[in-house]
């Protein structure tokens, strides 16, 4: 890590695993990523905002999805650090990574509810994938986070 960024704080964030009725996971391709990486909805928490409320807000802001039921809050917080080439660029250089609370939710709506062409769009396209695919689609610096999420979701799908 570049020394001048080592003392930066981690940004408080949330992430949402959205499962459809077939237990496929919602992923989307970011507008600002030129490679073929996909991610689940996630974002920052506003000052004083409840984490679950932040997750619901982020999900709606990024995907227009409102019809969800909470399945599980993942017990531990998950952290990732930005790679050196993104330090000082992402989040206007205020943070060195993110500590996230993840939620697993069931999508209860109709697919026509999903709209990534939002007021401030973040995604180019979206799709449903098997849970084992998420670790093959994500950027390298978030791989350990997605592996933990994959394990947590698989525990639920088995039970």
What does this structure look like?
- It is a single chain.
- The chain is an alpha+beta fold.
- The protein has a single domain (3-158), classed as Nucleoside Triphosphate Pyrophosphohydrolase (Alpha-Beta Complex), CATH 3.90.79.
- It has helices at 51-63, 134-137, 143-158, and strands spanning 10-19, 25-30, 38-39, 42-44, 68-73, 78-81, 97-107, 123-129.
- The strands form two sheets. Strands 1, 4, 5, 6 and 7 form a five-stranded mixed sheet that branches.
- Strand 2 (25-30) and strand 3 form a beta hairpin.
- The longest helix has 16 residues, at 143-158.
- The mean pLDDT is 93.
Secondary-structure map:
Blueprint lengths: L9 E10 L5 E6 L7 E2 L2 E3 L6 H13 L4 E6 L4 E4 L15 E11 L15 E7 L4 H4 L5 H16 L1
Parallel strand pairs: 1-7
Antiparallel strand pairs: 1-4, 2-3, 2-8, 5-7, 6-7
